[in-house]
Amino acid sequence: MRILITGGTGYIGSHVALNVLSGNHDLFILDNYSNSSKDVLTKLKIISNREFQSAECDIKNKDNLIKVFSDFNPEVVIHFAGFKSVNYSIKVPLSYYSNNVSGTINLLEVMDQYNCNNIIFSSSATVYGAPEYLPCDEKHKIAPINPYGKTKFFLEEILKDWAMSNSQNRSIILRYFNPVGAHKSGMIGELPIGTPNNLFPYIAGVIRNKYDYLSIYGDDYNTKDGTGVRDYIHVEDIAMAHVNSLNLLKTNVKHETINLGTGIGFSVLEILTEFKKILKKPIPFKFKPRRNGDIATLIADNKKAKLMLKWDIKNDLNQICKDTVRWINNYSHGK
Ligand code: NAD
Ligand code: UFG
After folding, report:
1. Is the dihedral of CA 250, 251, 257, 263 positive or negative?
2. Domain with 26 in it: what CATH number?
């Protein structure tokens, strides 16, 4: 298949690109490098030993998109390009609506223009808001509590309408829980620009001695040890689910929404214990007050993914932490 990946030099897009390259597909990566580096393209070529096309392209710019589609004529778009910080989305909501929502509408309009009928879209468990029951399945009420989550919800609705508007159109929405870890090569992983908000990138900063300690936001949640519990899923398991989604697009599926999580929750303290086993030393931390908007526990019901995508989790928490440490060590040595 001819596959276009938007945001393909980003954290998840780059891992999916490697999985696409290991299959018999032609790949085109577009990115505007607002949260990633062009170097990733070279790394992808080294790891995969394969060539692919790429372009610097902003999905907000329709002329740029038209150029990509007329050069490559994709059959499927795997769409990652977007902003993803909950905090910034509260500070600059219009920029989130413009980049994520207007950018995606541009993309769909150009897909229509070039008869490209298939899209796989990165959504987020954030659309569930505060869960009313756990594990959270796809039928759970949708109640996003920040502009970022709302962009995902609006886009899910837009993609449903787009799929229904033409008998050929198909869309698969993947709702990620907490993607973490890095590629086994140690050459690609999460590289946030600026101070990280998320747990794993911040821990990475402490391991690299960039920060003195981890702030643990809240020790009084109603969880096993008082710290927040999340469903951390290896980015390679996320990537594999995209490849399996390509197969699902070949069936008579029209529009499906699928959770991607492990079904298992770990607390912040349990994550630190796992890193301690690997590093053979503790990660310093201090308890701080709860973070605004945080919930105690979020865990996926992943039955639908297992059934429809014929997919399962291959990496446990130990593997996630080992791969994270390998990536941090390589990155710190400039590899
Ligand atoms: P990322 O920031 O590493 O990757 C996104 C990529 O899109 C970046 O390379 C960025 O430069 C690019 N981009 C942003 N706006 C663009 C635009 N207008 N035009 C072209 N490129 C643009 O983020 P990620 O973690 O790889 O996430 C990918 C997708 O998955 C995002 O849509 C995100 O919302 C979603 N998601 C991520 C998580 C997570 O925890 N990482 C969880 C749920 C959903
Ligand atoms: N945490 C800390 N210290 C930190 C960072 C996080 O204690 O420095 C805690 C949080 O309080 C939470 C857990 O670690 O209990 C995980 O926090 P993250 O910020 O890593 O992840 P969230 O679950 O809060 O949010 C993530 C993504 C959102 C996405 C959501 C649901 O950042 O974009 O998962 O999938 F919407």
Report:
1. negative
2. 3.40.50.720
* Inside any domain, residue 329: no
- Of 12, 98, 105, which is best to mutate to test ligand 1, by the most ligand atoms within 8 angstroms of its C-beta? 12
Burial of 69 (0-12, 13-18, 19+ CB in 10 A): buried
Q: What are phi and psi of 2, to 5 degrees?
A: -95, 115
* Contacts of residue 161, Cβ cutoff 8 Å, sequence gap at least 6: none
Domain that holds residue 157: 2-182+232-262
Residue 148 falls in the annotated catalytic set? yes
Whether residue 56 lies inside any domain: the answer is yes
Taking each helix axis from N to C end, the angle separating 11-21 and 235-249, rounded to the nearest 10 degrees, works out to: 60
Instruction: Specify if 19 maps to a domain.
Output: yes
**pLDDT tens digits, one per residue of 76-89:** 999 999 999 998 99
DSSP 262-291: -S--EEHHHHHHHHHHHHTSPPPEEEEPPP
- Record the tokens describing residue 58, joined without a space: 């902003």
Nearest residue to 127 via CA among 92, 103, 159, 94:
159
221 in a structural domain: no
The pTM of this model reads 0.98
Atom of ligand 1 nearest to the CA of 60: 18
Count the domains in the chain.
1
Render pLDDT for 5-51 as a digit per residue (tens, 0 to 9).
999 999 999 999 999 999 989 999 999 999 999 999 999 999 999 99
